[in-house]
TrEMBL record:
Residues 27-57 are annotated as: Disordered. This is CAP domain-containing protein. Residues 35-54 have a biased composition (Low complexity). Residues 1-23 form the signal peptide. InterPro entries: CAP_dom, CAP_sf. Residues 72-192 form the SCP domain.
Length: 335
């Protein structure tokens, strides 16, 4: 993960980020579709299901911990845009923690899959690792995401957690954690040392597809969203038509059985400058990561920090036209 070093605009330390998209499975199949699942190009629909065991009503993550910061940051952003809050599931915590530890034991490489001969192996995919700790993987969709983070400065654990949360939310293939119709999450966190400073390996496992409420499709970001990353680097696979660094994506999401297609998309800044967006639907995603129920629009170059943009999108949901217009404001963070 020691790559893509860039200077943050407000502070004088170097940052390296890495995102990997993404392994999963569910419903008894070999894999479920989506930005947080590996399906070898399949467009199968992840199953809806009832809530599973091991959910806790109050987060059990330690106060001031990185995991609690991730959990709270993601849920705050999801709720504002009409997506259901994620509930902590302690079995998914175990699965995610095992994978974070695996990455740390194997050189800090950010990966979604595990190799049986490597130290710390508990399962090749997110679904396998969930099944390993007893999660009912045959009944629900299971997916996940992994990320790495390094700075040559020591931050608080909460600051590390927020950095990982915004990195996930800023990825074309990782924004799913903020926008997919799932209800359960587990978080794993591991820290090693590089050049005398903490190097983070983080993982999440998400599960349990449920129908969305409201005027579908929903979007993330949405009207009034603030603080999102203005620039994302180091995502694997690299989104189409980018050099590896790009601006804030917008995820457009329906229910699991829906098909979302975007037909036009622009951002306009306060000076009236119009940015044409790259449109990505499951049918044209050359990386075969997006499911049919999600489309993503993104600028192929980074945006400006602390800037408000007006979004204009048109598309279809199951063949019926829709349009969305709203404003969001970037923060001074890199995803």
């Amino acid at each position: 993960m020691k790559k893509n070093i860039s200077a943050l605009t407000a502070v004088s330390f170097a940052t390296a980020l890495a995102l990997s998209a993404c392994g999963g499975g569910g419903g008894g199949s070999s894999g479920s579709s989506g930005g947080t699942s590996s399906n070898n190009g399949s467009s199968s629909t992840p199953p809806a299901s009832t809530a599973t065991s091991a959910n806790v009503t109050t987060p059990q993550y330690t106060a001031d911990s990185a995991q609690l910061a991730v959990f709270n940051t993601i849920n705050q952003q999801r709720q504002q845009c009409g997506f259901p809050s994620l509930v902590e599931n302690t079995q998914l915590d175990q699965a995610a923690q095992a994978h974070a530890s695996y990455m740390g034991q194997n050189g800090g490489t950010i990966t979604d899959t595990e190799v049986a001969s490597n130290p710390g192996f508990t399962g090749a995919t997110y679904a396998d690792r969930a099944a390993h700790v007893g999660f009912p993987g045959s009944q629900v969709y299971i997916g996940g995401e992994s990320a790495g983070y390094y700075t040559n400065a020591t931050l608080t654990e909460a600051a590390y957690g927020q950095a990982i949360a915004y990195a996930w939310m800023g990825g074309v293939y990782h924004i799913a954690i903020a926008s997919w119709p799932v209800t359960e999450i587990g978080l794993g966190w591991n820290e090693t040392t590089f050049n005398g400073f903490p190097e983070i390996q983080a993982s999440n496992s998400i599960a349990n597809m449920q129908p969305l409420a409201g005027n579908l499709p929903l979007t993330f970001p949405c009207q009034g969203t603030t603080g999102v990353a203005y620039k994302t680097i180091g995502e694997t696979p690299t989104p189409p038509n980018t050099s590896g660094a790009y601006g804030t994506p917008v995820s457009v999401v329906g229910n699991a059985a829906d098909t979302i297609v975007l037909t036009s998309g622009t951002y306009t800044d306060s000076s009236g400058n119009v940015i044409n967006l790259q449109l990505l639907n499951s049918s044209i995603d050359t990386n075969n990561e997006l499911p049919a129920f999600e489309a993503v629009a993104y600028p192929v170059a980074p945006l400006n920090a602390n800037t408000t943009y007006t979004v204009s999108l048109t598309g279809t949901r199951n063949g019926t036209a829709f349009s969305r217009s709203f404003t969001f404001t970037t923060g001074n963070v890199i995803g």
